[in-house]
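user: can you give me the structure for this one chain? tokens are fine.
assistant: on it. calling the predictor now.
[tool input]
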Amino acid sequence: MNKEQRPHKFRAFDKEKKEWLWPYPEGFNIIGEVTVFDLLKQYRISDYKNLVIVQFIGLLDKKEREIYNGDIVKLFTYGKNDPRKIQLIEWHKDTCRFIVKKRGDSGMEPLYFDATHSFLDRCEVIGDIYQNPEMIGVK
């Protein structure tokens, strides 16, 4: 595969049931509406408000796991108890890129650098904001 092109993959999280929908953790490709509606056929249109669709950012962590928007990662360049080692991958709409946010005094603060290969080869996905919000101080 051309390294310039990343696969466009997605995952769906049901906020009401608090679970990822199949196929988790592999994600699914959106190839027209047929794929999406086949995957989500057990849901009524009114149920879609309970679903969160997150996108694969095109990169892997140090253990070769796919990283998605909303994933919580542990960075290994900080000391053992340094709170900055727990970080959040998030889409930044103003700059049209995935960025990394660190835990700060007032919650998650943007670091405003891209989620890139050089950063992510030193991190590990340890959770996500939907199932593990407590990891980043959200109740």
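assistant: here you go. The beta strands are 9-14, 19-20, 28-29, 51-60, 66-68, 71-75, 86-92, 97-104, 107-114, 123-128. Residues 9-136 form a domain with the SH3 type barrels. fold (CATH 2.30.30.290).
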